Amino acid sequence: MRRMVLAGAAILAMAFAGVATWQALQPPPPPPVVPLDERTFEQMTEKEREDWMRTLGYVD
Amino acid sequence: MASFPFSLLVLACLTGLLGLRFGLELGLPATLADSMEAPNEASSAMAVPPKPGGLAPAGAGSGAGDAALTTSICEAMSSQLQDTCWQALARQTAAADPEEALRICARLGSAELSYECQADVAEAVAPASRALAEELCKGIPVVKWRGQCHFGIGLALAETDPEYAIARCQDAEAFRTFCRHDVIGEMAMVNLPAAVEICAREEGDTLTRKTCWHGMGKYLARRDMSEAAASCSQATSSWQPLCFHGVGWGGAERDVDQALASCASFGEYADNCRHGVANQLKRFDPTRQLAICEALQNSEARTKCLAFVTQ
After folding, report:
1. Cα distances (angstroms) measured from residue B288 to each of B182, B235, B298
2. Do B275 and A44 touch (CB under 8 A)?
3. CA of B204: how far to CAs of B102, B167, B200, in Å?
4. Which one, A42, B15, B107, B122, has the greatest CB density within 10 A?
5. Hey, how many other C-beta atoms are within 10 angstroms of the C-beta on B113?
6. Which residue has the higher pLDDT, B38 or A1?
7. How far apart are CA B125 and CA B103, in angstroms?
8. ipTM score for this prediction
9. What tens digit of pLDDT does each residue of B152-193 get?
10. What is the pTM of this model?
11. Which residues, 6 or more positions from B8, have their beta carbon under 8 angstroms from its beta carbon?
């Protein structure tokens, strides 16, 4: 009986550790995308600004 | 006692697996996780400057702003139209009574609309009281509308005080370069030497300097492409092609065929001008945009033009 309890505990422990390991291997959720117009000037890369400006006819 | 080795085995398994789990977590940030975050940083949502053309004069244009509005008129409107009415009434009231205009802004149904309304009030009061206008902008807690607010003040003063107007763009946040482009454009329409003098200082990063000349060409071309082309000759030589791109864009806003005919007379900058026409067509006539791009002889302009077709 005691062996069965221990075996059950071992299986549960392995399952728990397996799930935890799988979670750790997952990529972190992407950070929320902040629309360009809700950023400060410094929070934009030059490429982001240039693409945005080109779309709206502010640069070639 | 006989079960002791088995218990030891269970304990060893548990320790090993937990060690693996936390070990991986500690090791990940420097390797896998970092490489996965990079693309997300680059992605972004595209947005449009809310009012690049600036605030329409009170009473101008169509819609609720046409007639002289009153509080009772707005209150009598259906809920869908009421916010539009309050905004128009705030703009109408702002120059004469800023405090009342702000009280009207406070009646708007959402914080976002209220900030937009405050930015409109600041733009309207700026010619009479710059200090109050700037104070109103500083009081807006959302970066988007705070930036738009300073952008609006810049536009409001572009024709009368070029130095002050262009300085406002520094606080326009995401719209800083858009602001410089439009303020220079408005300025060039009434005071070309001032616009040329400011752009010739070559302030800021490459994009900031480029957009300055582009704005001059585009705004003047909306009035007269020949005049705009003449102004481009005053641009720093390396930015003249860019200025002609602005001329093409501005001319195409009025009449695409006429713009292309004018571009043909611009000699070595004809293709830069056509490139501007093509870019302007992207939203309205992508087929024609592509045809213009493919016909360009200037290889740099052609490459950029075609790249924008698929951007």
Report:
1. 27, 29, 18
2. no
3. 35, 12, 12
4. B122
5. 17
6. A1
7. 15
8. 0.77
9. 999 999 999 999 999 999 999 999 999 999 999 999 999 999
10. 0.78
11. none
